[in-house]
Structures are given as structure tokens and as C-alpha cells.
């Protein structure tokens, strides 16, 4: 229960960590930037994290990258298998997907 002096909309450290973990799993740009800054950048040290735990957020970012990589490979294998089993229908389906994706991109912009 929150105290009288504490604002009702203030996030607890556990909530902040949870929201950052979700962002690290779902937002590709955020997770890539975080991994590059924390793991691949040799010239900078990580500042202490205040109000959240950095380790679970980094682990979720790594898991999200791994999950996207596995998904991409599975889609590639499924598409290759579909091309081998039924090339005509697969090409037609891919063309329909490309046309719809192009319409979607133009609608969003």
C-alpha cells in the first residue's frame, strides 16, 4: 500500500525493471543499442543502475535477439521448404504478401 506522501503513479523498482525487460524483449532497436553499449563497447563503463536491475534487462535483451534470430531462421526454412514442395503457390503467396506490405508501408507513412 502506498503512503500518503508517495505519488500514486510512481513506479516501483520492480515495475521499472519489468517494463524495461518487456521493452528489451519487444523493441529491436532498444535491445541492439543496449547490447552494443554494454557488451561490445570497450571504451565505456556501465553506470550504476538506479531504480532498476540492469542484469535482468540485459538478459531479456539477449533473449529477444536470440528469439528474433531463431524466428528468422524458421521462416527462412519454412519458405525454402514451401518453395520446394509447391513453388507456384509459394511465389503467388509471397507476391501477395509483398503487395500488401507495400500498401501498409505507404499507409503508415
Account of the protein in words:
The protein has 109 residues and is mainly alpha-helical. The protein contains four helices and no strands. The protein is elongated, with a radius of gyration of 21 Å. It starts with 12 loop residues before the first helix and ends with a helix. The relative contact order is 0.09. The model has no long low-confidence stretch (mean pLDDT 86).
**Largest β-sheet summary:** none
Total beta-strand segments = 0
What is the residue-mean pLDDT, rounded to a whole number?
A: 86
**What is the number of independent domains?**
1
Computed over alpha carbons, the radius of gyration is 21 Å
Give the % helix.
over 70%
pLDDT < 50 stretches: none
Instruction: Note the quaternary state here.
Output: single chain
Tally the helices: what do you get? Answer: 4
Distance separating the two termini:
45 Å
Transmembrane segments: 72-99
Keywords: Membrane, Transmembrane, Transmembrane helix
